Amino acid sequence: MHLDNEEEEYKLTLSRFESMLKTNKVLFFDSEEFENIILHYLDSGKLTLAKKALKLALEQHPNSTNLKLVEVELLVFQNKLEAADRLLDQIEEVDPSNDEVHIQRATVYSKKGNHQDAVTSLLKALTLTEDLADVHSLLGMEYLLLDEIELAKDSFINCLENDEEDQSALYNVIYCFDFLSEHNEAIDFLTSYIDKKPYSEIAWHQLGRQYYTLKNYTKAVWAFDYATLIDDQFLGAYLEKGKSLEKLKKYKEAIENYVITLELDDPTSYVLLRIGICYEVINNFPQAMEYYKRAVHEDPLLDKGWLALTDISIKEQQYEKALIYLHKAISIDEFNDRYWLRYAVLNKTLLNFKEAEKGYQKAAELGNNIIEHWIGWADTLYVLGQYDDAILKLLQAISFDSENADVLYRLAVLYITINEFEQGTKYLEQALHKDFDKKEIIKSFFPIHWENPFIQNTIKNFN
């Protein structure tokens, strides 16, 4: 009831002031009323009205220290830092023990980038103020700007010790723990905080995040459960719980939690994609396809969504459709080597060998040096009759792994194909020595060469 009366008085004060401006009548306001009026306009971004109110205020209360401090805020807001500094000097001469002088001076220092001086001013303010929580919070921010994360963490903890309700400080202290990779310490801190404030949904949510980071997904779900029990509208907790349940392979429960987030807020492409992935894992391809399509409808530039559609279409052997989706992903991120490799493999499946070769080449240009992919590239060039190029790719591949039997057998076949029997023999003998059983590669991939007397004789002589 008391707060309602204060709010009513505040509104009446604003109404009286604005009425005075319209009628040009000069009404009297006490200094606190003027202070509230000026700060209201400043917070609303109405600089002209704030300045007008300040001018009238100082005319009626020329010796008010609080109004002069509000003037400092106005000068800082306008980035008139030197003028703010001079005014603070004047105020400090009259009232040296005013904590707000040192807090405002810290703000000026911070704006100038002098964060160490800002810290010094705030430490001075700590010895004078009764509002310890706010000053510790400001100190924490300055320490963050100085990359003094440990000191920042201590300041935010001190802030919470003086004001357990300061949610910004709670987020900030956890940020510091995260930055320092002190996840177990964060869990200890949050557990202690929850002992004092068991109904803090934010603390439970942050506790779940720490357990998730440490891959303790069962405990993460437990913590997120409490967060959602305290606040059944806590979208972030449902989302994180869904992610944790995915890690525990509880895909149906994960879907349930993701769906709740869709009911609480507008759908996001990320959540729609996660639901699709869960449905795909449990082999419900129609539902997976539906959510993937919803994801790319929500965000047409979601390349991961188009890729998911590509992969599920491949699983359903709908290769032409898969290629359409893959083109979408590549058009969004043409510098992703993994997309070009899928492009190569998919086109090879569709017997589009020229396009497959293009995919392998693009992937290689983007730095892909996985030997299996270079082997696939060489196989494609072989089909295209580009034997010399295929040999070149295999020689490059063998530089990654000089004893890879798959490469050695292919080199043997290709050299024999172009009638370079000496080189063919060398690589065939190396391959047989490396892995005799893998000679079946020739029978599987190069059946027309399997009965070649030269190859058969080399294999027999090796025995």
UniProtKB/TrEMBL annotation:
Query: Repeats (TPR): which ranges?
Result: 269-302, 405-438
Give TM segment ranges.
none
Keyword annotations for this protein, in alphabetical order, are: TPR repeat
- Please give the PROSITE patterns that the UniProt record associates with this protein: TPR (PS50005)
Q: Which SUPFAM superfamilies match?
A: HCP-like, TPR-like
| InterPro entries according to UniProt | TPR-like_helical_dom_sf (IPR011990), TPR_rpt (IPR019734)
Write the signal peptide boundaries: none
Q: Which Gene3D superfamilies match?
A: Tetratricopeptide repeat domain
Stored PANTHER family: CELL DIVISION CYCLE 16,23,27, CELL DIVISION CYCLE PROTEIN 27 HOMOLOG
Q: What is this protein called?
A: Tetratricopeptide repeat protein
Q: Which organism is it from?
A: Myroides pelagicus
